[in-house]
Amino acid sequence: MKIGEAAAAAATTQRALRFYEQRGLLPPPRRTASGQRVYDQADVNRLRIIRELLALGLTVEDVRACTDRLHLLEGDTLPRYGDPRGVCSATSGVVERRIAALDAEITRLTTLRDRLAARTSAAHPEGRAPTDDEPTDELADGELTTDGGVLTVMRS
């Protein structure tokens, strides 16, 4: 099948296929005499796996670390985590590193959320929501900016 057909079968775009090929997630496809890319069902299955891994939060680099094992999968679904057929199994550490990164980001965001909620609660201790014409906290009169995910107030 041609690139458009393969992209449609994998629920992606032709551009994504070319990107995955350039990044080393897909091997170079066979070509027709006129140079057009040709894909088969195994390629489509691999594309679906790549898209699922990316949707689960792995990065392109994470998936690239697993590409030498993608051909070991049958069909287009991932085995359960811990299954010895897993392409990003414990031997590579990709999944464990990504889970640790996600846990760290969840912790950071939870802390940020709690700090913001505490500021809002401190400004309105009676527990009522602020009206549209009153500030939501003592920072409302300043300019808010972010620096690496940290909220900063710039007062004039």
Keyword list:
156 residues; mainly alpha
Please give a structural write-up:
The structure is a single chain. The chain has 156 residues and is mostly helical. It is built from 5 helices and 4 strands; from the N terminus they run ααββαααββ. The chain has helices spanning 3-9, 14-22, 41-55, 60-64, 94-123, and strands at 30-31, 37-38, 143-147, 150-154. The chain has a two-stranded antiparallel sheet.
Series of secondary-structure elements, N-terminal to C-terminal:
HHEEHHHEE
Q: Approximately how much helix is present in the residues? A: 40-55%
- Evaluate the radius of gyration: 24 Å
What is the count of DSSP helices, taking H or I runs of 4+ residues? 5
How would you concisely characterize the structure shown here?
The chain is mostly helical and 156 residues long. Helices cover 42% and strands 9% of the residues.
Task: Please describe the topology of this protein.
Layout (H helix, E strand, L loop, with lengths): L2 H7 L4 H9 L7 E2 L5 E2 L2 H15 L4 H5 L29 H30 L19 E5 L2 E5 L2
Antiparallel strand pairs: 1-2, 3-4
